[in-house]
Amino acid sequence: MPHQHTGIDKAQILTEALPYIQRFSGKTLVVKYGGNAMTDPALESSFARDIVLLKTVGLNPIVVHGGGPQVDAMLKQLGRESDRIDGMRVTDAATMEVVEMVLGGSVNKSIVNLINQHGGRAIGLTGKDGNLIRARKLYMEKTLENGSVQQIDLGQVGTVQGVKTDVLEMFCSSDFIPVIAPLGVDEDGNTYNINADLVAGKVAEALGAEKLILLTNIAGVLDEDKNLLTGLSTQEVDRLIESGVIYGGMIPKVGCALDAVKGGVVSAHIVDGRVPHATLLEIFTDHGVGTLITNRNKAAQ
């Protein structure tokens, strides 16, 4: 008898997914992939299968990836350490070369390869391809004890000035799945390393995507009692940052999600990338596995 039950469970799962598949068919999703999900072979495989499945049932997934640990490992191998200021990598020209080689080369192609092995047709890009990501230099602002603000030069670290969507639209309307390394270029042709969450958010915004999904190494946004907050409006997020419930490394991530939603993305999800098939569970099930941020209070106000 047990076989029959698992069969029924599977059928229930599939029927639960159907309305979501119908609702999101033809819609674009931008998925930021990084952290643990990127270094654990089982999670890598489940991620790649999720992306292929999304494409197969008619959604248009776009992957933006990070790769900080891989860059660190390569720098170490080359006997070069890079300095960090408040967690931000100081990127001189020599370091930038390694960053580009690792992010635009080995990491990007390994994700492309993985998706292709699972039956997808991934194509790797950096922000340099087709002028996809226009960057400008990012200065980090540090408030000193006397209250004055100091601008810190991090070298070739950038922020997104603009995204050219034609390249991505071309791939999405065909069978291809774009996999983007977060490198951008300014009008003078200088290359910049850009935070992958930021790139994912700006790409989602530029495309008017249905969803931005940020895979992270934590369960999502937690409240004071460490319970997962599953649904938040933009107003609630602002309040949680002010009251200090959302703090530290979570602030920029949530900030990214918030900006995307305020910029026209229908919903942003902060999802635990350590859960196998987290992306599918978040999109196709009633409960999801992360924190969903929407502008849903807009109409009420």
Automatic annotation (TrEMBL):
GO molecular function (one): acetylglutamate kinase activity
Domain Aspartate/glutamate/uridylate kinase residue range list: 27-272
Catalytic activity: N-acetyl-L-glutamate + ATP = N-acetyl-L-glutamyl 5-phosphate + ADP
GO BP term, pick one: L-arginine biosynthetic process via ornithine
Site (Transition state stabilizer): 32, 253
Gene3D superfamilies on file: Acetylglutamate kinase-like
Family: Belongs to the acetylglutamate kinase family. ArgB subfamily.
EC class name: transferase
Name used for this protein in its record: Acetylglutamate kinase
GO cellular component terms listed in the entry, alphabetical order: cytoplasm
EC number: 2.7.2.8
Biological or metabolic pathway of the protein: Amino-acid biosynthesis; L-arginine biosynthesis; N(2)-acetyl-L-ornithine from L-glutamate: step 2/4
Main location: cytoplasm
Domain of life (superkingdom): Bacteria
Purpose of the protein: Catalyzes the ATP-dependent phosphorylation of N-acetyl-L-glutamate.
Keywords: Amino-acid biosynthesis, Arginine biosynthesis, ATP-binding, Cytoplasm, Kinase, Nucleotide-binding, Transferase
